Amino acid sequence: MMHFWNVVVLLCCLATHSGGQKNTDFYTTVSTLSDLVHVEKQVKAELLGYVERLKVLQDNILNFVQDKQPYDDLTSPSAVFEYLKHPVHAFHLIKRMTAGLGAIEALINKTRKFDPLVNVMEMRKQRLLPWDEDFTGLAGSLVRLQDTYALDLHELTKGHIRTEISRNRSFPGRLPLNARDCFNISQVALRHGFYDRAVEWVEQAMAKATEEEPPTIPKQELDTFYKEAIEEHDKVLRTLGEVGDQWQTYGVPVRERANRSTEFKAQLFDEQIEDDQVTENYKRLCRGEQLRTPKMDSQLRCRYYKGQD
């Protein structure tokens, strides 16, 4: 089992590299992700400190604006004028709008100096925090992982890695994916040419959204993208074919996929093997499948042959 898990981690790394990302694949190794957990703790500490300073600022602002003054109840300009004719009243008003408000201004400026956004931006610049490309790269690796190992997509959205080919292997996780997560992965799959997987992921997003309250993504947005994914899949199938180096489809229009048999029969002894067949054989070997039947193996013989000069 550990061998399978090591291959899974390795595939996540290779998948991001193969996506053409030269400087954005920092967050594909477990060791780097462990460092990121430490950085996250630093960020959380800074944010919590900022929240405490904001609370102090909020309390001071509320005290200032809620501090009721005698002239607040005066309704006419003449009454206010009469009130301010008293020199002590005038003193208090000026004091309030200088020293009192000045203290608020100083506290606001002090809070700005500790704005955590500055540090967060610097951390991102130094690659201590991941970029958006890292997120999309890892999403793409999940799609490749699912595709290569024929992972159970429903279980994958629950956070579990499970495959029944060729042996039932499962690695439970602690965190599930929500509807928006599935939607984001579907978008990445579509951009990377996994048109069949894109349809499957957005379907999972739609199923999850019906169970969420409140939903993490609007139903209308999902419906619109679902139609786009189907149209794009069928267009590629119609114009480019079932599969290629940079794309793959169901081999039939999305609406007809249920009618297609998923049984795969390997043709190993053809004189020429198509590129898509080589790719499929590679995926099957990764999953631990046998490409030859026991009968084929029983007919194999070894012999020594010396070619003629």
UniProtKB/TrEMBL annotation:
Report if keyword Signal is assigned: yes
Q: Where is the Prolyl 4-hydroxylase N-terminal domain?
A: 30-162
What are the boundaries of the signal sequence? 1-20
Q: Which organism is it from?
A: Ixodes ricinus (Common tick)
Respond yes or no to whether keyword Signal is given for this record: yes
What domain of life? Eukaryota
What is this protein's record name?
Putative prolyl 4-hydroxylase alpha subunit
Q: Which GO terms describe its molecular function?
A: procollagen-proline 4-dioxygenase activity
Write the record's keywords in alphabetical order, separated by commas.
Signal
> Which Pfam family, an example, fits this chain?
P4Ha_N
Query: One GO CC annotation, please?
Result: endoplasmic reticulum
